[in-house]
Amino acid sequence: MSFRKSLVSWLTLMRLGPTGRGVLPFFLGAVIAWSQGTPIEWPVFILGSIAVFAIMVMTFLFNEYYDYEADVANKDFHRLSGGTRVLPMGLLARHQALIGAFVCLTIAIIIGLLLYFRYQTGPYTIPLGLLAIFIGYFYTAKPLQLCYHGLGEVAIWLSCGWLATISGYYLQTGHFDAVTTLASLPGATSVFLVILINEFPDIASDRASGKKNLVVRLGKERAAILYSVLLVLCYVNIIAIIPFGVPAVSGLFSVLLLPLIVWNIRVIHYRESLDNKGALEGLSLRTTTIDHLITFIYTAAFIMAGIGIVSTGEVLAIVLAYVIVFVLEVVGLSCSQMVATAAE
Question: What is the pLDDT of residue 6?
Fold first, then answer.
């Protein structure tokens, strides 16, 4: 295989788009700490971001490795479901994903120890990291296989919601925070919905492989009702937490979500949409957009709350960090599109 083809395959396998989604809530936690008057400790921020990135990539690589049989059997996938297709297509050997996962695990552990011993980020640094690693590994790995027993969605809700955000906050401040926890909840629900909607096209192969996720357990019709209810509650959550210290401007910004929310609810309750690959892909894309927008809304709201407390240079550095993640997502999407084109 040529170097270019191998590189594209690896970048696709690493799922840079969803990986970026895992890093952004970590950024948000640091931004909340900054908005409260804690100057950002940049070495901790950078190292912590790399550790989160490594854990996310580790999770996806383990997922690709342990879900191999289900992905091979899946014929109804779209661009955002059914894995990356890199291993089923033979673009990389299956064992390479496992090796890559353990490399990422090693990087995360080393950074965690460095943060704890060198930068003295607090006694919960290592437990928070170990919890993230535990969820990432056992999401698909035996004996727990969380996503095979109806716990995968909850695990993602916890790890990519509260855990990522509170870790970004804790590493900067050395303590936990109620406002940060509240601000993490809408994003936790939206990423839960991303996972849920991506399970719809995979239902046949998931059922055949014994993966009893929520869509398999509930069936498409009842899962569609659950999706709609949680989507509405996600928006209600954004408004409900404003009186408890979350910047009120987040409620104003959240109006941007309403067209996408209404659109998705209308589409998902057309029975034909549940069996239409194009409609399901559109639902996935819009749900992912909602998820990203929620993180951006809270980041912008807390930056506005913090302006005047800290320097403009720090604001620009935060914006640059988000731009880097966005660029990685674009690269990941481009590589995925190349692999999808090759599959056709």
Answer: 86
